[in-house]
Amino acid sequence: MSVYSVGCGLGGKLGHGTRTDEKVPRLIEQFQTLNIQPAVVAAGAWHAAVVGKDGRVCTWGWGRYGCLGHGNEDCESAPKVVEALSNVKAVYVATGDYTTFVVSDDGNVHSFGCGESSSLGHNTAAAEAQGNRHSNVLFPEVVTSLKQLNERVVQISLTNSIYWNAHTFALTESGKLYAFGAGDKGQLGVELSANQTERAIPERIDIDLS
Q1: Which of 138, 141, 122 is nearest to 72 (CA)?
Q2: Is residue 134 a contact partner of residue 71, using CB atoms and an 8 Å limit?
Q3: Is 29 helix (H, G, I), strand (E, B) or coil?
Q4: What is the pLDDT of residues 84-140, one digit of tens each?
C-alpha cells in the first residue's frame, strides 16, 4: 500500500518533512526510508498514524498533549516510529482530536494523548465517582478497563471534536459495542447518573453488531 496526502500542512501533518500545504496528492516517501509497508492508515484532525505490515506504528503531525506517543509534545513533519510500542505487534490504529488508540495482536489496546473527557479510558471506577479526569498521556499505555472486558477488541472509533467533548467506541470480536468519554449530549448511547457528564470506564451499549 502507498500513502498519499494533500491539503493543509500545519504541524507537518501531511508527512512530507515540511509544513507547507499540498494542492495535489503527494506520496509520503518516509515509509520507504523506514522500510515500512503501510497496512492501516488513520488520519485525525491534527495528526496521522500508520500500522505497518510488520506491526510497527508510525505517527506524525501535531504532537500536542502527547498524541504522537513519543514522550513529548513536539510536532513531527514526517512519519516516526513509536519506539514505546517496539515490543508490540499492532494490527489497528485510530486517531482523533489529539488522541491515538492502537490495538495489538494480543488483544490489548493502548492509548495516548489528550486525557480530557476521560476519552482515553485510563480512569478507574473510583476516579470516575470523584469526577476526576485522567491527565494527558505522553507514552502509550494499555487501557486496562478494556482488557478487563475479557473480550478481544477489534476496532476503535474516535471523535475529531475540538470542543472537549471527545468520546470513544470500542467494538469487540463478538459484536459488543462499548463507549466511554464525554456523554453530556447523549452521544455515548448509555444512561449516565444525575449530574454525570462523562463516562470514564467502558459501558456496553444495548445493541448487537455480531
Answers
A1: 138
A2: no
A3: coil
A4: 999 999 999 999 989 999 999 998 999 999 988 788 888 655 555 555 556 899 999
Rounded CA-CA distance 189/204 in Å is 9
193 Cβ neighbours under 8 A, 6+ residues apart: none
Residue pLDDT, tens place only, 150-198: 899 999 998 876 556 788 999 999 999 998 887 777 777 777 777 777 7
Vertex 184 angle, CA 179 and 189, to 5°: 35
Asked whether the beta carbons of 124 and 89 are under 8 A apart, the reply is: no
102 grid coordinates: 492502537
What does pLDDT average to over the chain? Answer: 89
The three cell numbers locating residue 74: 513536539
Which domains, and CATH codes, for the chain? 4-148 (2.130.10.30)
Alpha helices (H) in 71-191, listed in sequence order: 125-129, 144-147
Residue 2 in grid coordinates = 502507498
